[in-house]
Amino acid sequence: MASFSNVRWLTATLLLLLLLLAPCATHPQLTPAFYATTCPKLPAIVLSVVEKALKRNPTLGAAVLRLFFHDCFVNGCDGSVLLDDTPAMAGEKNAVGNANSLRGFEVIDAIKSKVEAACRSTVSCADILALASRDAVTLLGGPSWRVVLGRRDALTASLADANANLPPPSDSLSSLRTRFAAKGLSLRDLTALSGAHTVGSARCASFRPHVYNDPDVDPRYAAFRRHICPRVGGDARRLPLDATSPNRFDVSYYRDLMARRSLLHSDQELFNGGAADGLVRHYSANGQAFYMDFAAAMVKMGNISPLTGAAGEIRTHCRRAN
Fold first, then answer.
1. 242-281: pLDDT as tens digits
2. Is 167 annotated as a binding residue?
3. What are the residue positions of the site described as Transition state stabilizer (predicted)?
4. Rounded alpha-carbon distances, angstroms, from residue 241 to 60, 133, 195, 261
5. How far apart are the first and last CA of the chain?
6. pLDDT at 8
7. So which residues are the catalytic ones?
8. How far apart are CA 182 and CA 163, in angstroms?
9. Mean pLDDT for the chain?
10. Does 214 show up as a binding residue in the annotation?
């Protein structure tokens, strides 16, 4: 994105402002102003904690964003991914797509502590996660958007539901489209949201099959990844999903797809002679379009089955029910 001229950057900014000002389709009980009177300092608190965390460790931005994805894809955006297991409940943290992989919980804990001090038992962990993911993207150089609020927190979580709903790195494009469509998300949403992989990293166990077995990988790219990730062992070793700019929210991810330098099989499926190829080409050449579509898709994803009204609760600690 650094190569954009001033004119193109101004154009992108104007387009984003239009998105922010335009009314967005959302759950009828969610609104950006939900805490305007009950917790007016909420946005500033969230931003300050996320900013401090990213200054200490920029990789936490991708971690927080991933938490939001994995929350919303399992029974909706209800903060259930944050719950620790209990003797009576096997939660989502140890699901196949989450175990030894999800990070950033301490960032949400720190935000919750400060929010509780400012406005006791008022703001849900689900809403904190939604705001934190937006701020993480913006601080990494990506777009901003209006976060609608008013979600309540789940009382429980489900390991089985997480295993059934989270897309594995082995998914085909057809399977990904089916999973996203079940959440009300289109192919455009899928392709734009996958651009979140312009930041973050993956474990060797997730990308080993792709760099060893798939034919659609640049040989030199695969050779280096094999050096880091042996055929046996080293499952926890990590590599950036976007080697070009791993802590910058930009279009490098899509350019990597076109060069066959994707770390995950499921990512390369977006540019493999299928229906998403045109969108990948479009985003790789047009950062403004990616930003606009990503922001719109994040709003849509944040509307997946929220708990509102009298459902759920407002947790005082995000890792456990009250």
1. 999 999 999 999 999 999 999 999 999 999 999 999 999 9
2. yes
3. 66
4. 14, 18, 10, 9
5. 44
6. 45
7. 70
8. 15
9. 93
10. no
267 is in an annotated binding site: no
**The predicted structure's pLDDT at residue 28:** 65
**Rounded distance, CA 203 to CA 192, Å?**
22
pLDDT tens digit string along 62-103?
A: 999 999 999 999 999 999 999 999 999 999 999 999 999 999
**What is the phi/psi pair of residue 25, to 5°?**
-70, 125
The sign of the CA dihedral 70, 76, 81, 86 is negative
Beta bridge partners of 152: 307
DSSP state string for 197-242:
GGS-EEEHHHHHHHHHH-SSS-HHHHHHHHHHS-SSS-TT-EEESS
- Give the tokens for residue 66: 């991933």
Q: Are 306 and 78 in contact (CB under 8 A)?
A: yes
Q: Is the pLDDT of residue 156 over 60?
A: yes
- In the chain, the amino acid numbered 229 is C
Predicted pLDDT at 93: 97
Residue 197 assigned ligand-binding role: yes
Q: Please, which residues have CB within 8 angstroms of residue 41's CB and are 6 or more apart in sequence?
A: 118, 119
pTM above 0.70, yes or no: yes
Q: What is the pLDDT of residues 16-50, one digit of tens each?
A: 544 444 444 556 689 999 999 999 999 999 999 99
Residue 119 has a CB neighbour count (10 Å cut-off) of 15
Name, in order, each residue with C-beta under 8 angstroms of 226's C-beta and a sequence gap of 6 or more: 211, 212
89 neighbors 157 (Cβ within 8 angstroms): yes
Residue 137 belongs to what H/E stretch?
helix 125-139
Q: How far apart are CA 212 and CA 201, in angstroms?
A: 18
CA distance 322 to 319: 10
